[in-house]
């Protein structure tokens, strides 16, 4: 991991749109809008798509874990899961075997729908990545991880 020496507080800039936080939020908002657009054509929202992606990689996740990983509240996560279940894209038991967690899994239709929308979503991410010289991408990814970690402490 890169060790960095503190440089002191951020310097004021004459235009708020040049602050790091503003630029990170602008990039996030642009990504969200582009994803919303392509997912809408497939009848999905960003939290629903993110949930399908996570369940494909980690079957059996609980509502609480999925909510955390998709950046929504547990209550909103439950609404997302109910919508996906009503659409036949996921299954979860009516009751928990132990505790309160009900493991969630993709159905065959969930896997199929995910495969269809992944291409569109990955194309959005590729548009973003193509804007960066390839040799700078690893540094950008590492720096974004450092920013998130610094604020989670």
UniProtKB/TrEMBL annotation:
<dbReference type="InterPro" id="IPR000835">
    <property type="entry name" value="HTH_MarR-typ"/>
</dbReference>
<dbReference type="Pfam" id="PF12802">
    <property type="entry name" value="MarR_2"/>
</dbReference>
<dbReference type="InterPro" id="IPR036390">
    <property type="entry name" value="WH_DNA-bd_sf"/>
</dbReference>
<dbReference type="InterPro" id="IPR036388">
    <property type="entry name" value="WH-like_DNA-bd_sf"/>
</dbReference>
<feature type="domain" description="HTH marR-type">
    <location>
        <begin position="17"/>
        <end position="153"/>
    </location>
</feature>
<protein>
    <submittedName>
        <fullName>MarR family transcriptional regulator</fullName>
    </submittedName>
</protein>
<dbReference type="InterPro" id="IPR039422">
    <property type="entry name" value="MarR/SlyA-like"/>
</dbReference>
